[in-house]
Specification:
The N terminus and C terminus are likely disordered. The protein has nine helices and 20 strands. It has a seven-stranded mixed β-sheet with strand order 7-6-15-16-17-14-18, with helices on both faces. Helix content is about 25%, strand content about 20%. It has two domains: about 180 residues, 3-Layer(bba) Sandwich (FAD/NAD(P)-binding domain); about 170 residues, 2-Layer Sandwich (D-Amino Acid Oxidase, Chain A, domain 2).
Length: about 400
């Protein structure tokens, strides 16, 4: 549905047709609730800021993804991890995979599922105000609601309006999409460590759906080069392996990625934050789709139970089920303060490095290729324009 959401009386209004927002709205609608989703964009697939990688855990655990069309995904079976000197090691875990996605079309597919469940999606409708009334909130032109969910990103207007917590620690991500090109080893996610170009995180090259995605995310400080300058330097660095320097991207994504963990407070009476608005992004990997879908659905069920008089307000006990990322916040701190290119060059392929990669990429499920599979990138043998990695 498009158009104004005026004068509606809703059981729940979800602000933001995000992964978390659509998951929450779908569950609420299936529970018989009157649900409205306010989305300021004209389309849930517009102006996205995510790389769109879905981990196997999400496919296994999130029923909302059942029936995800195969043409919207490309399976990635492992990781090729590059040290700053471009030596690499291949990492894999039996049965584990990632799905690169055509993210705009996935978002439209999720929105359609929410509408089929009975949710109303009001595009081009911004959240402007929320005044408490006895039965919930008066949202002005958006009508009244018994419960309000903020799923409107890391700079959530719902959080700001209600005095809830907001993220203060961010990475900044920048990604180019290139069409009409292919890369060698397209079934691997190519990840690059480089403290100068991607401090606090990584850079990557991934074969997506009909495109190749090239990006980096980084902690930003005044003395560092800008993200576009870092991207140009990254493209130059990897040109012996993948040469995109003379290609024009068909799309560019950029945006803030919260990396400080769950905000505080994350809820108030009859109001709850989910997804990026709640800081529900892994502080270590910056991955948030799995947790957004999983906890968005759980929030929808908890809200439905509350509105049906079966449980207490989710602002109480339910929010204590949100992930706290204690180990990953510690690893984030260590990576922020002690990242060393020299150390990564020395440790690539060692048991400690593989163990760390197990936490980051495979949630400790990995059995990795042995150290003798580590190979030096034969940079000196590459010629200009050669896009084949070693």
């Amino acid at each position: 549905m498009q158009g104004r959401a005026s004068h509606l009386q809703s059981d729940c209004v979800v602000v933001g047709a995000s992964f978390a927002g659509l998951a929450c709205a779908s569950v609420l609608a299936r529970a018989g609730m009157r649900v409205s989703v306010l989305e300021k964009k004209a389309d849930s697939g517009e102006k996205l800021h995510t790389t769109g990688i879905i981990v196997k855990d999400a496919v296994d655990q999130v029923a909302l993804l059942d029936g995800l069309p195969s043409e919207l995904v490309h399976r990635i079976n492992g990781v090729r991890l590059y040290a700053p000197n471009l030596r690499h090691v291949d990492l894999a875990a039996p049965g584990y995979y990632f799905l690169a996605t055509d993210t705009p079309r996935v978002m439209r597919w999720l929105a359609e599922r929410a509408k089929q469940a009975g949710a109303r999606i009001a595009y081009r409708n911004s959240f402007n105000r929320a005044e408490r009334i006895e039965s919930g909130f008066d949202l002005g032109e958006a009508g009244t609601t018994r419960f309000l969910v903020g799923a409107d990103g890391p700079t959530s207007r719902v959080a700001n309006t209600l005095g809830l917590g907001q993220s203060t620690k961010f990475l900044f991500g920048l990604e180019h999409e290139y069409a009409g090109v292919e890369i060698a080893e397209p079934d691997k996610m190519h990840c690059f460590i480089d403290r100068c170009l991607a401090p606090g995180y990584i850079a990557w090259v991934v074969a997506g759906v009909g495109i190749v995605q090239v990006g980096l995310a980084r902690r930003v400080a005044d003395e560092q080069p800008s993200a576009p300058a870092a991207m140009a330097a990254f493209l130059e660095k990897i040109s012996p392996l993948f040469d995109f320097r003379h290609l024009r991207p068909v799309a560019v994504r950029a945006g803030k990625i919260p990396c400080g963990g769950i905000v505080n407070p994350v809820a108030a009476e009859r109001a709850l934050l989910v997804g990026d608005a709640a800081g529900m992004v892994s502080p270590l990997t910056a991955g948030g789709i799995h947790t957004a879908l999983k906890h968005g659905m759980a929030a929808g069920q908890a809200i439905a139970d509350f509105l049906n008089g079966k449980s207490e307000d989710p602002a109480g006990a339910f929010v204590r089920t949100y992930p706290r990322f204690r180990t990953k916040r510690l690893l984030r701190y260590l990576f922020d303060h002690f990242q060393s290119d020299t150390l990564f060059n020395l440790l690539l392929g060692t048991k400690p490095m593989r163990a760390a990669a197990g936490i980051v990429y495979f949630h400790r499920k990995g059995v990795f290729n042995p150290p003798d599979r580590v190979e030096a990138s034969r940079t000196e043998e590459r010629v200009a324009g050669d896009t084949t990695p070693p």
